[in-house]
Each structure stands twice: as C-alpha cells, then as structure tokens.
Amino acid sequence: MTVAEELIPETPDESEEPIKQRKNGLYPGVSDELAENMKSGWADTELRDLEPIPQAAETAARRAALSARFPGERLVIPAGNLKTRSNDTEYAFRASVEYAYLTGNQTEDGVLVLEPKGGGHEATIYLLPRSDRENGEFWLDGQGELWVGRRHSLAEAGTLYGIPASDVRELAGALREATGPVRVVRGYDAGIEAALTDKVTAERDEELRVFLSEARLVKDDFEVGELQKAVDSTVRGFEDVVKVLDKAEATSERYIEGTFFLRARVEGNDVGYGTIAAAGPHACTLHWVRNDGAVRSGELLLLDAGVETHTYYTADVTRTLPINGRFSALQRKIYDAVYEAQEAGIAAVKPGAKYRDFHDAAQRVLAEKLVEWGLVEGPVERVLELGLQRRWTLHGTGHMLGMDVHDCAAARVEAYVDGVLEPGMCLTVEPGLYFQADDLTVPEEYRGIGVRIEDDILVTEDGNRNLSAALPRRSDEVEAWMASLKG
C-alpha cells in the first residue's frame, strides 16, 4: 500500500481548536452570522486549462534517475517550511533545491515522496490544498488565501507538475506507520523528520543528499537556458548600476545594491545571493554585504551580483569598475594582472580537463605578477608550493554554479574538486587580488585596492562558452563601455 492510499481524509472534529487570532487584534471574535456568510457566494475559480510546467520532462527524467539509484526504498524530499523573521512575519520562502530540482514546485510545506513499486517508484507530491471555506481558514488564518494569496488545488498541481498530488497535512501520520527502508533529505522539515526518526539513519540520508548534489553537476538543456537567462538579466543589472554611479556617490553603496535588486525582482525571482557592492577598500573584504560605505570618485567599485530566475537558477558575475570611468595607472596594472589570470583560467576549462586546472592556471599568473612586482620572493614554483600568493588572493578561483550559487556543495570530493570536467558543467572563473588597507608588506599606494573579475563558464563539447561575455572585461573595453552608458 502506498502512502497516498493510506491517506483517508478525516471528518473535522467538532471540538477542533478554533483558528487562533492575534492577541491584540481589533476583532474579539466572529459572529455565527458572519461565519455563515463567509462560507458562500464565492465563484468557482478552479483552473482547468493548465499546461505542464516547461521543465516537466526534465524533472521526470531526474526522478527516474533517482529511482534507479535507490530501488526498493521510500524516498522523501521536503520543500521546507516558512521561517519566522520576527514575531508574526516570515522570510520570503525558497524551497529546498533538492525538492525544486525534482518537481519544479516552490511552495512551502511541500514534500515529494517516491514509493517503491514494481521495478521503480511511484511519485506523489504532497501539498497544502486550497484554503478551507467551511472552517473559515481562508480568511481567518494568517496563511489563508485572503491573506497570502491563492494556492493551486491538488488537481491543478497534478497537471502542472505531472505528479499526482495529495494533502500534505496527512503525510506525517502516514509516514509514522509506513514500513520498509526509507531515506529523507534532512534539514528542511522537522515534522517530517520526526515522523521518520526511527526509520532512517544519518549515513543513508547523507547518501541521498550526495546523490542529488552530484546529479546537478551536469546541466540539461533547460538548465543551461535558465542560466543564460539569469546571466542576461545580470548584464542588464550591471548596466543599470553604471548609469547611476553619480547617485551612488551622493548616497552610498546601498544605492548600487538597490539598483541591482530592482532588476533582479523585475526580471527574476530575486538576487541569487547577497549583492557585494564594495567600493574603495571594502573591495578587499571578500564577502562585503553590508554595503553601507561611501562611493568615491577615483576609487574602484567591486560589484559581485547575480539575478536568480523564477526557476531558481542564478548568475554569479563580478566586475571591478573605476567609479569615475577611468583606471589610474596602478589600478590598471593590478586589474590587467587579474584579467590575464582569468584568461588563463578560462582557457583551461574544457572537457576532459581536471577541475583544478583552471584554478592552477590562474594562480600561476597571479604568483608570477606578485614576484615580478617584488611583493613576494620567488621563484614562482616556491610561491605556489607554499601558497604564499594567498595573502593577496585568498579564495579559490571558482565553483560550480546552478540552483545554488555554490552549487553541488554536497558532492563527493572525487566527483567535484578532484573530478574531470564534462560538457554541461557550469562554473565560475574568478581570480582576484586584494591589498588590505592595513597590509604593511606592500607599498602604501597598493593598500585598499581590491580587484576581482568573474564570469560564468559553460563546458561545451569542444571547449567552453562564456555565458557572461556580453559584459566587457578588458580594462580599455570597460572604460569605453562605461563611457557609452554614461552618455
């Protein structure tokens, strides 16, 4: 018997606890007359002409691969729950990547269950149904539809996602009674995990999480299209920023952050990560997200930002821009060194290459420059062996990119960092040099200068494609591009 078959809707208990109201709400209660009035007079809004979501074929193929990997086991993949921001307000919900990858659905409290059947699995998506109009939930509950918006009915969801849909409110109880081997993706739904507490093990659940992470290493055609869409919006967001740098100078880095955010919300779901709008010495702080500093002519702006599409795929692009439109001689020297390192890194991205090759190629160029400038004692091989260049280029040169900005993070080391590049993989190449404002080992004029250049690179059958090539990278091209945007 499947979980879906075990779930039989129960008749609401007349003694059921009433929907809670705010402690200091202005209405002390609901009259019988109002309650009765709210039950009727509503049009039928069921959507009967829906088509499956664009990625329905891809999500079905992903579920099939998951089924083949874990035959005979019940697999439980939750979307997650709302998280409280403060008191009775919640953070914007973002479904777990594992759940969204396998279903295309993004609603809170959802759970995908794959039940063993025959030689494979039968999938069911468990969701909250439409708000109940009989008990007043739709207008009295804080998550009722008149407060937060209409949900899809279970029938609508089944059509959209190509998966039979059932009421998630009965799932935990059914899982407690279920028998046979079970795996769950942990960390998203405490209620579902509690229902399975005596049926799962951390080791087996980790195997499920690792498999789903590695499954995303190679992107399908739909995913590549979404990544390009994210990058294209990001390019427009960078153009927006350049056009308003004078307003940022009059205010702060927040103006830059807000300008890019507007593009992300208009064309996508959100930003894919906290925007780094780092002006002047803040560019030397790798993850500067406070964005509350001054924007000054003559200094550099390091903008690291990405639009996330409505399907959760994010771009991750960085440009370092002269705020007044022209690099100084020293800024240009440092920038050109980073550009040269990035060029070497991008050239190393190709099918059959080791994943580490692009990092090693970029680091070698940076080490050579640091030795050439007299900032570290050579030879270059010694610098690289001891990692001495890392004082000024702390981070790795890139990472996988997809539904997470640092995608596939749970993959095995041998499949990721120690792995081999394949067509369909997408990664960032982002070398940088950062001379901290208090670094006494470098000449004073270097201090407070930070430069990073980052692009999103797709591995192709014959090499690679720079998805973000529409944004200029070479220093003279950056200056010309900024001048054209400022008119």
From TrEMBL:
Pfam families: AMP_N, Peptidase_M24. The keyword Protease applies. Signal peptide: none annotated. The keyword Magnesium does not apply. SMART domains: AMP_N (SM01011). Keywords: Aminopeptidase, Hydrolase, Manganese, Metal-binding, Protease. Residues 54-193 form the Aminopeptidase P N-terminal domain. PROSITE patterns: PROLINE_PEPTIDASE. Residues 1-27 are annotated as: Disordered. Residues 7-16 have a biased composition (Acidic residues). Transmembrane segments: none annotated. GO terms for molecular function: aminopeptidase activity. Its EC number is 3.4.11.9. It catalyses: Release of any N-terminal amino acid, including proline, that is linked to proline, even from a dipeptide or tripeptide. Belongs to the peptidase M24B family. PANTHER family: XAA-PRO AMINOPEPTIDASE 3. This is Xaa-Pro aminopeptidase. The lineage of its organism: Bacteria, Bacillati, Actinomycetota, Actinomycetes, Kitasatosporales.
